[in-house]
Amino acid sequence: MTKGRLEAFSDGVVAIIITIMVLELKVPHGEDLESLRPLAPVFLAYVLSFLYVGIYWNNHHHLFQVVHVIDGRVLWANLGLLFSLSLFPFGTAWLGETGFASLPLATYGVILLAAALAYYVLVRTLLRIQPAEARLAEAIGPDTKGRISPLIYVLGVAVAFVAPWISFALYSVVALLWVVPDRRIERTLVR
Amino acid sequence: MTKGRLEAFSDGVVAIIITIMVLELKVPHGEDLESLRPLAPVFLAYVLSFLYVGIYWNNHHHLFQVVHVIDGRVLWANLGLLFSLSLFPFGTAWLGETGFASLPLATYGVILLAAALAYYVLVRTLLRIQPAEARLAEAIGPDTKGRISPLIYVLGVAVAFVAPWISFALYSVVALLWVVPDRRIERTLVR
Amino acid sequence: MTKGRLEAFSDGVVAIIITIMVLELKVPHGEDLESLRPLAPVFLAYVLSFLYVGIYWNNHHHLFQVVHVIDGRVLWANLGLLFSLSLFPFGTAWLGETGFASLPLATYGVILLAAALAYYVLVRTLLRIQPAEARLAEAIGPDTKGRISPLIYVLGVAVAFVAPWISFALYSVVALLWVVPDRRIERTLVR
Amino acid sequence: MTKGRLEAFSDGVVAIIITIMVLELKVPHGEDLESLRPLAPVFLAYVLSFLYVGIYWNNHHHLFQVVHVIDGRVLWANLGLLFSLSLFPFGTAWLGETGFASLPLATYGVILLAAALAYYVLVRTLLRIQPAEARLAEAIGPDTKGRISPLIYVLGVAVAFVAPWISFALYSVVALLWVVPDRRIERTLVR
Question: In this complex, do C50 and B97 lie within 8 Å of one another by their Cβ atoms?
């Protein structure tokens, strides 16, 4: 089974997710600066989610650079990732409209956790059937970032009810951590 | 005629269908748990439809793995399938907003039937022109699942007016039945 | 310049156009048959437009089967076609919501005319630079359907203000005429 | 790292951006000519933005014709461009709904500037790693258009508060300037 359509379908779904989030930036009713102000948190939430969805797309891209065999289970593991990513527009809109309230921040953290878990399952499902399993495993390496991120998400969920902006800061820090592309796989590929 | 663009176009349409369904998960007006509650049936309907659309994409993917020749009739049979799938967002939203009322459940069953019929027509249209028709037919096999599913949909439509939740259970059982990828075609491909 | 991305981009735009039209099928507020009734004209308009956009996609597909060279002008001619197709969701929604009133029917005819003109310009722009121009011209042939359709659209626009349903019937007849795939090009390809 | 998925993903995002802008063309409540009138500025804004997004897609297409190597930084530079393009639907809708008011016109100019800057960063990021850097640089040439456009955008932003329609005229002139495809790269490719 070739990976071409899985990649194309994933690209399509992620492209739509990343783009419909911007629909939350609703046109202000006025035409002065004052009418733009309520959009500030909505825009901030959009930027954060654009980064996260971009990160997942980049990592998906990197991952499938070194993957050559897929099967029916991989299709479903991949759909699991796309499902969790499809919850971003909801989480983002709720964050933005409530101005980063506690429960929306915690919900956002749960969505981040779901996506991280789904990505982990996808990687495991792929490793199971790769002929050069060793190489992919090596390319992924000890994956420190991948292990720390969920812990910070959990922290963010907990902290959301006490100090919302710390929760937001935690999610942002993880995003920035990942914006650095996954050099480990690139390095392995170059060798 | 090559199948590349048919696959790409189908991937695009299915990607959009699966993603716009999530737009029904409308942002709650409040920011407490209470305001999330009305979303429960909407979310449940989304999960069910995500599974169904995912199943059709997977089966489409499997099917075109063993298909190499297409013609104008196949393009239209495929558009027929995409048309019936495009009714999922409507059916799903109606299910969710009415909390799985009788008529919406029956309508959903009719959409499931339409999609099953359109898929059947697509397979027949493809079989007609495949050089290695025998191989595809063998790959598809006796197709027990494909024959039982429409019967259960019909049952679901009828039962919707008496015991709505049994109707929902029937649709869910069929979905779970199909989440197991179509191993028959995979098996044939491996040989 | 390769045609791959032009095809992929066109597939994407057409896939979105065909899918967002279904968003007009708004969820009824009630849950009985009565609440479905106002959707009948909306659904009918959707079916007609799905056919038309499907026809354009199929013809685009057939056309680019025999095209191998593109240039900057072709990109813009193609964007012209995509622009005119992007007006279908508006035209369709207006048709459906007014129950096929006169001005919406005339507007729909103007959109059909614009799409036909844009497709004609695209074909001419392609013919200009094809090495095997003769073969493409032959594949396209006398193109009787392509010449008659705009005339019927004009008739439909005029008749819309007198007898709306005749206008609708005219548009439908042209659509059915085109659902038969363009066998001329297929025939040439087989030779 | 191959450029195929970057192109496919960009095609998907741009296709969605260009298509959701048309959703602002909301169905009029009446069915006479009078009810169409408020749509005139919305339509005009849509045409302008369709041109701009079309220009970016064409230039992206031309650019990646001569690009063969990408890396993680290119992925992010490209996401930066897609992010700035994703603000077009917002800017366009605000323009249209306010009938080209001053602040919306200035905001639109800022979005144009952001896109121009993001495109510039993408080109630089690509040049850094191309083996045949010289050829790409030559293909891009002195890039007079690329240097003048941002200056006109800045002028448009400033003028928006004094003479809105001059601002609109400036943006339109730049668009028309770019509709002529980038013949420099085409020329180099032909050699």
Answer: no
